[in-house]
Write a structure and sequence with these properties.
By secondary structure, the protein is α/β, with parallel strands linked by helices. The protein contains eight helices and six strands. Helix 1 packs antiparallel against helix 3. The chain starts with a strand and ends with a strand.
C-alpha cells in the first residue's frame, strides 16, 4: 500500500576524501518529500509550463549549476528581466506543499574524525533516510511503501548505492523503517521533475553553510520547506550537519 508520498534524492559535491576541494569541502545529500497528489497535480504542471514558456519545449533539464552560471540553454538568463521572471517561477514551485530534508557532511572534519572507514555518501544517506522516516511518521504514513528515487551515476555506483540502502534497511533500529522504503534508480534521460528539483536544492544548502552571511535566495526558499523542532530549530530536524 502506498504511503501517498514519493522521495527524490540528489547530491552536491563529491564524496571523495582523498582530494577535498578547498572551495567546496562539502557533501550534501538532499531529499525532497512530495505528497503524490501535490507532485502530480501542482509541481509537475508548474515545471512543465515554465519549460514551455521559457524554452518552447519540455526537453530541457533543470540543472542548478547551469542556471546559476547562465550557461546554455540557460543563457537566456543573462537578461536581467528574464532571470527575474524565471526565478519567480522557481519560487512558485517551492511554495508548493512538500518537504525537504538534507544531510551536510563537512568533509575535512569528517576525514579527521572517521578516516576512510565510511563514505560520506553512506553516512549522509543513513541520516537522511532516518529523518525522512520521522517526517512520514508525523504524517501517519510510516509503515506504508514510499519509493525513494536516486539518479543513476553509473552501473557500479548504482549497485554500491543499492547495497548500502539495503544494509541500512536491514540494520536500522528505527521501528518500521525497513518496511517503509523502496529503492529505485532513474536514468539521467528520464527528465524527472522531482530529481531536477532535488538538484536545485543540494548546492544552495552547502553554499549557505560555507558562507552563511552571503545572500542566498535559493536557501531562503529551501528553508521554508524544511521541518523544524517545536522550538523552530531546523538543524537536527530538516537539516543534519555532520560532524
Amino acid at each position: 500500500m502506498s504511503s501517498g508520498y514519493i522521495v527524490y534524492v540528489d547530491e552536491s559535491g563529491d564524496h571523495s576524501l582523498t582530494k577535498i576541494n578547498p572551495d567546496y569541502p562539502m557533501f550534501v545529500l538532499a531529499f525532497c518529500v512530495f505528497p503524490i497528489d501535490v507532485y502530480v497535480d501542482h509541481v509537475v504542471p508548474l515545471v512543465q509550463r515554465m519549460k514551455f514558456d521559457f524554452f518552447n519545449h519540455d526537453m530541457v533539464v533543470l540543472h542548478e549549476r547551469e542556471i546559476r552560471q547562465a550557461t546554455p540553454p540557460f543563457d537566456i538568463l543573462l537578461r536581467a528581466d528574464v532571470r527575474a521572471s524565471f526565478m519567480d517561477r522557481i519560487d512558485a514551485v517551492f511554495e508548493q506543499r512538500f518537504g525537504i530534508v538534507a544531510t551536510a557532511i563537512r568533509k575535512t572534519e569528517f576525514r579527521e574524525q572517521n578516516g576512510g572507514a565510511r563514505s560520506p555518501y553512506d553516512v549522509a544517506l543513513e541520516f537522511g533516510l532516518e529523518r525522512v522516516f520521522l517526517q512520514l511518521q508525523r504524517c501517519a504514513a510510516a509503515g506504508q511503501e514510499t519509493v525513494v528515487i536516486f539518479e543513476s551515476r553509473g552501473r557500479r555506483e548504482d549497485q554500491d548505492l543499492e547495497r548500502e540502502f539495503d544494509r541500512i534497511m536491514s540494520t536500522t533500529r528505527m521501528r518500521g523503517m525497513s518496511g517503509s522504503f523502496r529503492f529505485r534508480i532513474a536514468s539521467k534521460q528520464a527528465n524527472s521533475t522531482g530529481l531536477q528539483i532535488a538538484d536545485m536544492v543540494a548546492r544552495p544548502i552547502g553554499t549557505h553553510l560555507l558562507k552563511p552571511d552571503q545572500p542566498n535566495r535559493a536557501w531562503e526558499a529551501i528553508l521554508s520547506r524544511m521541518p523544524r523542532s517545536p522550538q523552530g530549530r531546523v538543524e537536527g530536524w530538516g537539516l543534519k550537519i555532520y560532524p
